[in-house]
Amino acid sequence: MKTARLNSLTERNLLSEEHVARTVWSLALPTMIASIVQSANSFLDRIFVGRLGAEALAAVGVGGQMVFLTMALAMAVSTGATAIVARMVGANDRAQLREAARQALGIAIVLGVLLTVLGYLLLPFLLDWYRLNERANRLAHEFLGWALLGVPGTFLLMGLSGTFRGLGDTRSPMIASIGATLAHILGDWLLIFGNLGFPNLGIQGAGIAMALSTWVGAGILWVQQWVRSERELAIPAFPIRAWWVRIMRIGLPASARTFIYSTSSVMFTGILSATAAGTAAVAALPIGLTAESIAFMPGFAFAIAASALVGQALGAKNERLAERFGWASAWQACAVMTTMAIVFFVFAEYFARLFTSDPKVIELAVAYLRINALTEPLLAFGMVLAGALQGAGDSLKAMLATFITQWVVRIPLAYLMAFWLGWDAYGAWGAMALSSGFSGLLMMYLFKRGGWKKVRV
Fold it and tell me: Distance (Å, rounded) from C-alpha 92 to C-alpha 404?
């Protein structure tokens, strides 16, 4: 019974040469659904907290950024687990698969607890850095006082999700994501406002709901492992140094990509604020990013599919099939994201008006959407092929490509086009589009070279 899961994967024929496109789609679709659910969760959470006032929104916004930093490290465990488990599935190495899953779970628990303790110790100093007013600072303390209790749950959820994806199962993480979202929304409704006899906890209720949701999601995945003849994968092992190195060597560069994106975004926003458009350009940026996030969902989903399938094919010593999975994932993402880009281009003004009535902000948001829509197809290749490299264990190349795209190309080009060429915010939008196109071309070049086929995990 312990090998039932591996046998079921063989029956599903994930590594079939005849059903490459169908297999990619079957793995990507659940992740897309999960992404949509998570977006709805963020939207509803913001609505609930917004009823507490602007200072509560600021407090949760700051708190959310701090929690997001812990998620970036949790992603390292998840990415490493996916790459190694996928490789072991392809190689039919049950012993190493079991050890990889159990070590990932143990590492997730240790890191989750350590970061929770560290978060409480550093909380006063971190919040002082944001220089919130007195009430917002107090609310942020109250929110994070509870929300940080969910950090170990986040690590467990990410670690378990990485194992499931490596197994070729994206449906189980989707179910867990839906469960976590429902718990979050219900928790907000019950605890922020005191509905159905629950205490009216305000911002603390928002923190409890966030923490609770991560534990619910992790619990759903753990139970699924336990009841589906995979109990040996659901028992955490005490982390040993060799496995720390093995998992983090793949995962940390993937996690660093998130940090690179975050820091370059701060710099890019600073450039926008210095343009003649100034505040209007800064206000237009989140409108454009919100629209683009709809296209990022399928890109992320196909990247997850490519990661699992490329890893499994390499484990089976089928480099040709691994390459086919990578390109098939990228082309499908390109088709979906190109469709979304056309929608952005045609309905850009309508979308911008949903968020603001300021004519200047609308003008700049429309320009953002139409300029960046032009390189959305190449962005799809950049996102998905980076996922393919990570699945092969070659996450360092994906990280370096992201650094080059964001810091060597985007930031200097934005400064050049906005100020030296005098194109103001429109120049910055152009730099975004060109750097996105560059990222796609760079990732296509790296994937086509094939060095990732020789990486050992």
Answer: 37
Q: State residue 130's pLDDT score.
A: 67
How far apart (Å, rounded) are the C-alpha atoms in residues 382 and 181? 29
247: left (phi over 0), alpha (psi -120 to 50) or beta: alpha
Q: Which of 204, 239, 274 is the last residue of a domain?
A: 239
**CB of 237 within 8 A of CB of 104?**
no
The whole-angstrom separation of Cα 77 and Cα 86 is 14
**307 alpha carbon, distance to own chain's centre:** 13
CA dihedral 249, 380, 414, 252 (to 10 degrees): -10
Q: How many domains does the chain have?
A: 2
Q: Which of 215, 207, 170, 152 is nearest to 35 (CA)?
A: 170
CB proximity list for 60: less than 8 A, separation 6 or greater: 45, 46, 49, 140, 143, 203, 206
Q: Phi/psi of residue 302, each to 5°?
A: -70, -30
Distances (CA, A) of 415 to 264, 379, 403: 13, 21, 17
Convert the pLDDT of each residue in 78-128 to its tens digit.
999 999 999 999 998 888 999 999 999 999 999 999 999 998 998 888 777
pLDDT for the residue numbered 229: 57
Smallest Cα–Cα separation from 28: which of 239, 297, 296, 302?
302
Q: How far apart are alpha carbons 400 and 297 in whole angstroms?
A: 23
Q: Specify whether 313 is located in the same domain as 373.
A: yes
Label residue 287 left, alpha or beta by phi (over 0 means left) and psi (-120 to 50 means alpha).
alpha
E-strand stretches of 185-270: none
| Cβ neighbour number for residue 40 with a 10 Å cutoff | 12
Range of the domain at 227: 4-239
Those residues whose C-beta lies under 8 Å from the C-beta of residue 317, and which sit 6 or more positions away, are 90, 91
Q: Whole-angstrom Cα distance, residue 111 to residue 74?
A: 8
- pLDDT of 6 higher than 50: no
- Specify whether 276 is located in the same domain as 219: no
